[in-house]
Amino acid sequence: MTEHAFPPQHQDSMPADEHEMTPAPDYTPRFPGVGKLKDKVAFVSGGDSGIGRAVSVLFAREGAKVAIAYLEEHEDAEETKRLVEAEGSEALLIPGDLGQRAHAFDAIARTVERFGKLDVLVNNCAQQWVDDPLEDLSEERLRRTMDSNVMAQVFVTQAALAHLKEGAAIVNTTSVNAFKGNDSLIAYSTTRGATLAFSRSIAKALIKRGIRVNAVAPGPIWTPFIPGSMDAETVAGFGTQTEMGRAGQPWEVATAYLFLASEDGSYFNGQTLHPNGGTIVGA
């Protein structure tokens, strides 16, 4: 595939903004809801845009009320709230840094205060930068990546455990890079490997309480990650290296989260789903 997949573009921020992307990522669910999450309450970190937005909207279509946690992308978050409400559900916006333990606990407390309970936890927030070569990776950037991608998941999960009951589900976002590595995303790939190990470990610990834990490992997906972390020309060819010859769209990934969060995935624990365009990796 020689033609550009996307127009060249770049944003000088991380997380970047979905409303500035061309074309806009496709979050729209493809099928009518059938109540798979009826009367459930879900907390989605990084829910303002990208995969998080697609998950929030799909969960709302299936009957869930959604707490949308995000860092500071207020315009994107407000749009996601509008989209959730357009599905006939309710949304709570919670801005702030979940890599700070106090805020993570406050975010979960606000969710339970608003909706009365918590049934589904989606640990999705993350940041990434192209950091090749390794010797140029700064301590500041490494720590920021770890705080966003690892510490936030641990802190939010710790906070949620006081409220998750038997039958609850946790779905963590990892990455294809946790399985195959990436020489230009070393810090990011390392954190996603940590997420994978965290998911498998707490899956063993929490199944005793009747709480299932699984992960989703997306491949190249058209989200604000991409223009926020890559130069314009790299963005232009993004996703063309996959077996399908294209990047995925957020809606194509959100269905994996729904499966694992709902009773459809009732016999899945400690597992990883791989919406990655055809890359074969170890499970």
What is the topological layout?
Layout: E1 41-45, H1 50-61, E2 65-70, H2 74-86, E3 91-95, H3 101-115, E4 120-123, H4 139-160, E5 169-173, H5 177-180, H6 186-206, E6 212-216, H7 225-229, H8 232-236, H9 250-261, E7 272-273
Parallel strand pairs: 1-2, 1-4, 2-3, 4-5, 5-6, 6-7
Region (Disordered): 1-31
GO molecular function: oxidoreductase activity, acting on CH-OH group of donors
Family: Belongs to the short-chain dehydrogenases/reductases (SDR) family.
Give an overview of the whole structure.
This is Dehydrogenase. Belongs to the short-chain dehydrogenases/reductases (SDR) family. InterPro entries: NAD(P)-bd_dom_sf (IPR036291), SDR_fam (IPR002347). Keywords: Oxidoreductase. Pfam families: adh_short_C2 (PF13561). The chain is of the alpha/beta class and 283 residues long. The protein has one domain (37-273): Rossmann fold (3-Layer(aba) Sandwich). 39% of the residues lie in helices and 11% in strands. It contains 9 helices and 7 strands, in the order βαβαβαβαβααβαααβ. It has helices at 50-61, 74-86, 101-115, 139-160, 177-180, 186-206, 225-229, 232-236, 250-261, and strands spanning 41-45, 65-70, 91-95, 120-123, 169-173, 212-216, 272-273. Strands 3-2-1-4-5-6-7 form a 7-stranded parallel sheet, with helices on both faces. α1 (50-61) runs parallel beside α2, α1 crosses α9 (250-261) and α3 packs parallel to α4. The longest helix has 22 residues, at 139-160.
